[in-house]
Design brief:
The complex is a heterodimer of chains A (296) and B (293). With 296 residues, chain A is mostly helical. Helix content of chain A is 71%, strand content 0%. Chain A is built from 14 helices and no strands. Chain B has a domain at 65-245: Orthogonal Bundle (MetI-like fold). Chain B has 14 helices and no strands. The mean pLDDT of chain B is 88. The chains are: A mainly alpha (296), B mainly alpha (293).
């Protein structure tokens, strides 16, 4: 390797290291903070790793107060019951996001197939309406959403969040899958239909397997979008019957009595599902995102 | 399949999605537009007189309107530029053969995948002025004489907000740019290298022009995202200190949920929607003239 090449590769690797630290640093720090007693974190500078402990997690799941929080002289560390809401809230998030995922696949796939392959009246209008709906600013409709959900008698239910999140995610799902099916060759399904397959049969048996990578990516997008949604979840939920992870995490973090360690525990727990999904499906997601900007 | 069933098939498949999306767009937008012409203050629940355009006039004449508009403009320009630069840098690194590119490729999606609320809180604790880890590190390395109040100084709070936004949004731009870079045939670079082109020259003559369509997508998408940023501000700065990070969409929230003036909040939301729409149309025009070239 020539010296110029060596210098170039060294500089590029250095840049990569800086970027990796920038991207991963915040995740590492919250995970570390969740394993510390709060008093260690409140030092200047914070003293870290001296006594990593699972006590904070233990408190969140079982309610057993860590010894480091008990009375020391006059001072008692900050703690809050609210942190214990994180497990049921993440459960809600999971149920809502999984339902949204299933509905997106079940409603989105046939609709996308129709838009891609069939010619019918009002096709263009319907397609443009679906896409255009995403231009609506969330804040303007927050109050009307509340009114609709109240009229349906669904305030503080997970069903209301599933409905709203489906309305938010279906446009992207349909658009993306339509592009995807456009790029799947027609010969196979046409042969199938000559052999007497109906459209739904052809869709399930022939097209679906060929578009599987695209389906996996959209399913993951729908899951993440609803798992991460905050604004509407904040307005439409009131209790642990329906409050999701982001709502509870934001509320705990806004509570002056909450300890930094416990907030970190809640955040770490909330981060685990999307991070696992992002790493496990990295190839599919990257492909899906690339496809969405390069397909025409 | 009988003829009638075939005829109805397309409508049956798109109807459920259409109904659901319609219920949560047409009706709410109609209600919002109607409400914007009435006085709607939650502290006076029984009186909703029709007041024409007064909500719009009051919002535009309010103490915060022009100021928050300029903050929104600054934030949008800074974060779009930051996201753009970050995305392009990461994509270029991912497109090289260095060993660490593989690591970067695995982790780059992580900030994109998580809730904005959590992203904001991660940075809130890192930047904390009393016991944040960034202060801790800088102080231990003797790079700063004392702790810096990143989030309670008006200028630093804005910088912090942009930093968090670039961290959260940069991933997507990186993936988009990488997709664009990989579409550029490598023969072009080889030919240029034969002709004795240097790296910078190749970037200007080959990469940049061929990346233009993707760059415009990133520009449109990130402009919209920045203007409508809410979750991040809600947890990171709460619009403060002293309104220094209050984007115009933050005031739409504040009017509705703090001042309880729905009419004002909705009128403001409609103004924001029209502004965003105008920007998108302007971008699309640029995109169209690009395509026809």
């Amino acid at each position: 390797m020539s010296p110029r090449h060596a210098v170039r590769s060294l500089l590029l690797n250095l840049a990569a290291i800086v970027l990796i630290i920038f991207v991963v640093g915040p995740f590492l720090w919250v995970a570390i903070a969740s394993l510390q007693a709060e008093n260690d974190l409140l030092h200047r500078p914070p003293s870290v790793i001296q006594h990593p402990t699972l006590d904070n997690y233990n408190y969140v799941f079982t309610g057993k107060i860590p010894s480091s929080y008990e009375v020391k002289g006059q001072l008692r560390s900050r703690i809050t019951q609210e942190a214990r809401m994180i497990a049921p809230a993440l459960g809600n998030s999971f149920i809502v996001a999984l339902s949204v995922l299933v509905i997106n696949v079940l409603l989105g796939t046939p609709a996308a197939y129709t838009f891609s392959r069939l010619r019918f009246r009002a096709r263009g209008a319907a397609y443009n309406f679906i896409l255009g709906s995403r231009l609506m600013p969330a804040m303007a409709v927050a109050i009307p959403y509340y009114v609709i959900v109240q009229a349906l008698g669904l305030l503080d239910t997970r069903i209301s969040l599933v409905l709203v999140d489906c309305a938010l995610t279906l446009p992207f799902t349909i658009w993306f899958l339509t592009l995807y099916i456009n790029n799947v060759p027609r010969d196979m399904e046409e042969a199938g239909m000559v052999d007497g397959c109906t459209i739904p049969q052809a869709l399930v048996r022939i097209v679906a397997p060929m578009m599987l990578p695209g389906l996996v990516a959209t399913a993951a997008f729908a899951f993440m979008t609803s798992y991460n949604e905050f604004l509407f979840a904040r307005f439409l939920t009131q209790s642990l019957r329906s409050q999701t992870g982001p709502v509870v995490i934001a509320s705990i973090a806004g509570n002056p009595d909450a300890s930094y360690s416990l907030i970190s525990v809640c955040m770490t727990l909330g981060l685990i599902p999307p991070l696992i999904l992002a790493i496990a499906l990295r190839k599919r997601l990257t492909e899906g995102l690339s496809t969405s900007v390069t397909f025409r | 399949m009988p003829e009638t069933r075939t005829r109805w098939y397309p409508y049956v498949t798109i109807l459920p999605a259409l109904l659901l999306i319609g219920l949560f767009t047409l009706y709410p937008v109609a209600v919002a537009i109607q409400d914007s012409f009435y006085q709607y203050v939650l502290t006076k629940p029984r009186s909703h007189p029709f007041i024409g355009l007064r909500n719009f006039r009051e919002v535009i004449g309010s103490y915060y309107f022009l100021n928050s508009l300029s903050i929104t403009g600054m934030f949008t320009v800074a974060s779009v530029a930051g996201v753009f630069l970050f995305g392009l840098t990461v994509a270029s690194l991912l497109n090289t053969k260095i060993k660490l590119a593989a690591v970067l490729k695995v982790i780059i999606l992580l900030p994109w995948a998580i809730p904005s609320v959590v992203a904001g809180l991660l940075w809130k604790w890192i930047l904390n002025g009393d016991f944040g880890i960034l202060n801790g590190i800088l102080f231990s390395l003797k790079l700063i004489p004392g702790y810096i109040p990143f989030l309670s100084d008006p200028v630093l709070a804005r910088v912090s907000l942009v930093l968090a936004q670039v961290w959260k949004e940069g991933s997507l731009a990186a993936i988009f740019f990488l997709a664009g870079l990989q579409l550029i045939p490598s023969e072009l670079y080889e030919a240029a290298r034969m002709d004795g082109c240097r790296t910078w020259r190749m970037f200007r003559a080959i990469t940049f022009p061929l990346l233009r369509p993707i760059a415009l997508v990133v520009l449109v998408y990130e402009t919209m995202t920045s203007i409508l940023t809410f979750d991040l501000i809600y947890v990171l700065t709460g619009g403060g200190p002293a309104d220094s990070t209050s984007l115009i969409s933050w005031f739409a929230y504040a009017e509705i949920f703090k001042s309880l003036n729905l009419g004002h909040g909705i009128a403001l939301s409609i103004i924001i929607a029209l502004l965003t729409l105008a920007l998108i149309l302007a971008y699309l025009r640029i995109l169209r003239t690009e395509d026809s070239r």
